Amino acid sequence: MLDIQAAVSLQPCNTLSLPATAEFFCRINTREDLFEALEWARQKNIPVTPLGGGSNLVLVDDLPGLVLQIAIPGIALAPGSELGEQRNIHIGAGENWHQLVLYTLEKGWYGLENLSLIPGLAGAAPIQNIGAYGIELSELFHSLEAVHLPTGELHTMQADDCHFGYRDSLFKQAGRNQYVITAITLSLSTRPHLRLSYPALLQALEGCDAASLTPAMVSAAVCEVRRSKLPAPASLPNTGSFFKNPVVTEDQAAALRQQFPDIVCYPQTDGTVKLAAGWLVEQAGWRGVMRGRVGVHDRQSLVLVNFGGGTGAELLALAEEISDSVQQKFAVALEIEPTIYPAPVKKPL
Questions:
Q1: Closest by alpha carbon to 116, among 219, 215, 190, 6?
Q2: What residues act catalytically?
């Protein structure tokens, strides 16, 4: 029997600790729970908003309708997936991401080590196409299962269906609030294929014998780097990186390098260049700046924090200030990485 509650605070459900209230709230532990909750919402003719671990969202107001906290568990080898070195792992959407990474390392299923310590749940990983230290989820993605809200049908979606991009997917664009992801399947390997190109990771592993490096050692190094740069949300509410690294043309990058020789750039395989958003924000003078109850972290300019009592509106106002100053100094547009709830109303042209 579902426990659907009214007027539930969402402050404990988001890592920025922003105040908001769900009109109705329900925890989903099974796919059957989900279908029952959707039927309840359909009968009341109210909207449905799925939430995961709340680590990649900004709440700016109360959420009308039924808010679903997806907590479906389970990690198992997909049937018939033990072919050669490949292992397809079926994962419930409610599994904690970092605990999943550690579990796969223990099992000898490799590939996720660079994605260690990313907050949130497995079901949210495809929405954001999470990535870190030289790898993105889409590179390890096999498929996912999701319920299509308008029809109530269960869909199995392959990578092409998800329209993955840099920190982007179908589920942040045309498919926003159209699907509830119930499970994902990732293609991992029993043979390590270490990805060590990211400068900060290389620095953390300096002095280690390359021939003896293991995926577990890489995971530990990633955790060390993340802990040194990013505050724990439990002690200082935040959502990790607040801005995407902007991608520009080679001509734009060359012009910026000429004007700012120390600019941090990452050439991409498609000929574009990714700029370090944290460097841009810091050079624009925002590191450690406070705006009342919110501000920029004093060690990592890419992280906006809630010092206590801050609101989503205050945080977005600060983000807009930062974006405007970066645009003015570098002629580069910053894009917010977390998803805003409720969805902003688009201004008419």
A1: 219
A2: 167, 241, 337
Strands 57-59 and 339-341: parallel
Element (H, E) at 257: helix 250-259
- Beta carbons within 8 Å of 285's beta carbon, 6+ residues apart: 325
Q: Are 72 and 92 in contact (CB under 8 A)?
A: yes
The pair of structure tokens assigned to 326 is 């970066």
Helices 97-107/215-229 angle, 10° precision: 160
Using CA atoms, how far residue 62 sits from 9, 66, 174, 237, in Å, is 9, 11, 23, 19
- Would the pTM count as exceeding 0.85? yes
- pLDDT for 67-103, tens place per residue? 999 999 999 999 877 778 999 999 999 999 999 999 9
> What 3-state DSSP class applies to 182?
strand
At 129, phi and psi to the nearest 5? 45, 60
Residue 192 contacts by C-beta under 8 Å, 6 or more apart in sequence? 110, 214, 215
Domains of the chain: 5-70 (3.30.43.10), 75-189 (3.30.465.10), 238-341 (3.90.78.10)
Instruction: Name residues whose C-beta falls within 8 Å of residue 189's C-beta, 6 or more positions apart in sequence.
Output: 85, 86, 87, 109, 110, 111
- Amino acid in position 311: T
Please name the residues in contact with 177: beta carbons below 8 A apart, sequence gap of 6 or more: 47, 48, 49, 50, 149, 343
Q: Residues 6 or more apart from 298 whose CB is under 8 A from it?
A: 287, 288
pLDDT, residue 346, reads 60
**Which of 292, 287, 289 has its CA nearest to residue 308?**
292
